[in-house]
Amino acid sequence: MIVVVTRLGGPSHLVGIGAIAGIISALVFTVVHQLLISSIWFALPAMLVAGAVCGGCLAGTYLLAVRTPSSRGWLRFNLLFLAMFVALGATSVAVFDPVTTITALLQTNEPPRELIGRALPMTAAFAFATAVLLSLVYRPRLPGVLAITGTTVVLLVLLGLNISVLGLVAVTKGEARLLGETFGLLVGLASVYAAVVLSFVRAAWSRAGGA
Prior knowledge:
Layout: H1 2-6, H2 11-36, H3 44-65, H4 71-95, E1 100-101, H5 102-108, H6 113-138, H7 142-164, E2 169-170, H8 176-207
Parallel strand pairs: 1-2
Helix pairs in contact: 2-3, 2-8, 3-7, 4-6, 4-7, 4-8, 6-7
C-alpha cells in the first residue's frame, strides 16, 4: 500500500485507497449504529460493499474533478457531498407530508421500499441538480462531469435513499434525538472516510505541490 501511495499518479491508485477507507468507515458506522440506535449486523456485508463502492467512486472522482489535489481540496470535496445528504433530507421534509412514524419503521426491520418509491422522483431530480451544481463548482472536463454525475447517483442510491424519505416520516419530540444521532452518524461516516484517505495521501500530495 505504501508503494501505491508514494507513486500516486492517477485515479486508479486513489480508487483503491478510497475503497479501503470506505470499508473502514462503513464498519465504524455499523458498530456505532448497533450500539446507539438499532441492530444492523445483518446488513454488515452489504454495508461493507456499499462503503467500498462509494469510497472508490468518491476518490476517483476527486482526481478527475480537480487540477491539483490537496488536503484542503479533498476535505472541501467531501464536505460538499456531506452537504448534499443534509440538503436531501431538508428537501424531503419540505416536499412531503408524513405518512408513518420512526417507531413503525424500526419495528419492520425492512427497508422502507414503498416510501422510497414515493420519494424517487424527488430523489432523481435532486441527483440531477446536485450533479449540475458540482460540475459548475469544479468545471472539470467531460470525464470529470461524468464521474461527478455517476458518483452522485451511486451515493444517493447506496446511502441516500433512507434520507430521501425523511419527509414521509413523522418525528415526535422523543424521536428527535434518534434523528439527531442518525445525522451524527452520517457526519462521522464522512469524517472517518475523509481522514483515512488523507492519512495515506497527504505526503504524496504535499510533494506534488498540493496544500
